[in-house]
Amino acid sequence: MKKELLTLLIFTYSLITSAGVVDTLKVHSDVMNRDIPVVVVRPSSTVAQSPAKGKKSKKTTMPEVVKCPVVYLLHGAYANEYKWLEVKPTLPAIADEMQMIFVTPYVLNSWYFDSPVNKEFMYETFITKELIPWIDNHFPTLADRNHRAVTGLSMGGHGALFLSSRHIDLFGAAASMSGGVDIRLFPLNWNIPDMLGEMASNRQSWDEHSVMECVKNLKNGDVTITFDCGESDFFIEVNRALHARLLSLGIDHDFTTRPGGHTDQYWSNSLDYQLLFFKKYFNK
Q: Per the confidence metrics, is the pTM higher than 0.85?
């Protein structure tokens, strides 16, 4: 998207500590004509430090700002842009330790779709054509698919695999935890009908927006994929079905089940494993 379509941030609150930086932003969306709240968590190495006072020298060299890979962290239904800081309060320290930038946009219960029935919900376009370029223009990112990944919990898990399977040019790696990866099994839940219309009369749209169908367009190796689900989670069977679907398509992936349910505790633990997966991908 052209630079002029990306507006300057309206409000920034930066908390700078020894464990990283938390930026609370509003990024304007032209496609939806409103400002979208976004939280960015980044390493302290991405902040240029002033030279120490009192030191005299003919030439002062400013520390170089380190460029980092980016992980987009997607929240679940009925949550907001602060959800991942609630799930993982140590995220700023992790950003410093792993030298990664984390980005969480607030998308309401949009399921990360461009809604065909409500043009006020165009979050696929916002993330892929507005937010990613905005982040790359305003933060020291390694701005290519080989250093950009996406994951999320529940609705966000579906969103991560949905976006990455449709935009392999943007995301090199993708993950999901406790993802609702086949929305067709939940035709009355979590505002999905508000996004796609009633399923019985909009079946094609529901198919097109379900991860279970989107993955059939992938070729093996298009995206490096991992996903997991708790064995007590109500989404466990749809995740097992996605695992079987990917195997039938010949798409390599990692799939893990662990004890646990649809809880912050499970997602906090899951994120540890997924970030190691992403780090290995970024470093290869």
A: yes
